[in-house]
Design a protein that fits this description.
By secondary structure, the chain is α+β, with helices and mostly antiparallel strands. The protein folds into 2 domains: about 80 residues, Membrane-bound Lytic Murein Transglycosylase D, Chain A; about 140 residues, Glucose Permease (Domain IIA), CATH 2.70.70.10. Helices cover about 15% and strands about 25% of the residues. The strands form 3 sheets. Strands 5, 6, 7, 8, 9, 10, 11, 12, 13 and 14 form a 10-stranded antiparallel sheet that branches. A two-stranded antiparallel sheet has the order 1-2. It has a two-stranded antiparallel sheet with strand order 3-4.
Length: about 250
């Protein structure tokens, strides 16, 4: 009786056998791939259904498209009038338009927007507009253009909640709202047919769509909508493509 195996010892033996069996079965199986949670899978996007509150500029901004060409592709004239529920094509392959360098290019091959379009860095003249570009906020740059696992399409400027946000150049407000995911309270300014600028994560918007503003005029207040600290997210688009704002702004 002294050499008999008790229930506890039997249980331990069974557990050990189970672990060995599982290891043997799993040893021949490949490990699952590691996928970055922020990296959206590439997919073709051929059209967009207009939602309430959207403008052609906010739609162009979302997909990185030149608004003039987007309006032309959808026979919208100047693009000032779109309605909720309207279906817009995003295929601009047959619409000629200017390149980031300012030259007019004929379409060469079909380009359909994807969820993984990346920023570009064209050569930018130092003074493309009537007045000099200026910084939209006073704080330090904490995130630069093109950084991160998913390429950052602008810069982040740290600030205090409620500090002023100013127009980086003369322009007209073409979007003011919170309908673009990831930007919080957002303002988009049109400076000319070539350049747009955007100001995100504001606590308060001080201008409305259609309003003309001058360089240096306050348009919003810094906020922290959906962010870990108060900051301004600032972007510049050239013919719809993100470019590095630092190349335009004066050296501090």
């Amino acid at each position: 009786m002294g050499n008999s195996i008790g229930p506890r010892a039997i249980l331990v033996c069974v557990m050990c056998f189970t672990l060995v069996a599982l290891a043997a079965c799993g040893g021949s199986r490949p490990l699952p791939p590691v996928v970055e949670r922020d990296a959206a899978p590439p997919r073709r996007i051929d059209f967009h259904i207009v939602a309430p509150g959207e403008t052609l500029y906010s739609i162009g901004w979302r997909y990185g498209l030149d608004v003039s060409r987007l309006a032309h592709a959808n026979n919208l004239g100047d693009g000032s009038r779109i309605r909720a529920g309207q279906r817009l094509t995003l295929d601009l392959s047959r619409v000629p338009g200017p390149s980031a360098s300012g030259t007019v290019q004929a379409p060469t091959q079909k380009r359909t927007p994807t969820t993984t379009d990346t920023p570009h860095r064209p050569t930018i003249p130092s003074q493309p507009l009537a007045s000099q570009w200026r910084w939209p906020a006073q704080g330090p740059v904490v995130t630069r253009f093109g950084s991160g696992a998913v390429a950052h399409k602008g810069i982040d400027i740290r600030g205090e909640f409620g500090e002023p946000v100013v127009a980086t150049n003369n322009g007209v407000v073409v979007y003011a709202g919170s309908g673009l995911i990831g930007y919080g309270n957002l303002i988009i300014l049109k400076h000319n047919e070539r350049y747009l600028s955007a100001y995100g994560h504001n606590s308060r918007l001080l201008v409305a769509e259609g309003q003309r503003v001058k360089a240096g005029e306050q348009i919003a207040e810094i906020g922290d909508s959906g962010t870990d600290f108060a900051k301004l997210h600032f972007e510049v688009r050239e013919y719809g493509r993100p470019v590095d704002p630092i190349a335009l702004l004066p050296r501090r």
